[in-house]
Structure prediction request, 163 residues.
Amino acid sequence: LLLMESDEIQFVSTQRNQQKVVYRERCYTLKRTNRNDKCWICASGSRGCFGKLYTNLDASEVIRTGEHAEGCRVDAHAFYHQQQLNELKRLAAGDPRPVLEIYDELASNATTSPETAAYFPTWEQARNTMYYSRLKRYPPLPASGWICSLLPSRQQRNLVRNF
Prediction:
């Protein structure tokens, strides 16, 4: 497990390809882009946390930060956790095996190291991400009447009369 250096900015993308930034062991979501900077808000999920991070437009440099709420927790492994979710998403989209089998395989590999085992996403955290990713890659078949729409209109009328 590679822990981030405190002032290093690292990027991760979420299930819906939303960009997130990890800085000083905290995760931020892009709120808005101004003319001169980008404003990122704390993504911890803590109620009342108004922690903000302002970066330059290419997000390579931190301009200033805002205070976090007292109950807002620091997650030193947020980057690793999000990386693993992205890997599960990638595998689910490209691998025809059952999603649970893919998860079990990656989980067993990650749990061989005690440092990473505790921070690997749980099945509940990964399930929706994996199924959503697969659904985008392999959309469901259309409803039952789809064959009729492929036939020429005369054949459709004959088909309806025969019923």
